[in-house]
Amino acid sequence: MITAIVLIRAATDRIPETAQAIADIDGVAEVYSCAGDVDLVAVVRVGDHEALADLVPGAIGRVEGVLDTDTHIAFRSYSRRDTEAAFAIGDD
């Protein structure tokens, strides 16, 4: 499974509609509106690089209101919850 973070610049007057349209695309796990250099952040989970190559320009990039995308592929996931769960094994 490949996880990618897609940073999206969107037309300001279409952010809610654009975000929902992206969230409805298969392979998109979550979409966040945010402040800063980008308007939306999408978390994408797909089976292989080919699916990612199809999804970002072929689906996300074609959503009305999307002006630009910048895709970052994740190598590993780190979170406090995962670390705590790993050290809790056998505590029953």
From TrEMBL:
Domain of life of the native organism: Bacteria
Boundaries of every Transcription regulator AsnC/Lrp ligand binding domain copy: 6-76
Alphabetical list of InterPro entries matching this protein: Dimeric_a/b-barrel, Tscrpt_reg_AsnC/Lrp_C
Protein name per its UniProtKB record: Lrp/AsnC family transcriptional regulator
Classification lineage: Bacteria, Bacillati, Actinomycetota, Actinomycetes, Pseudonocardiales
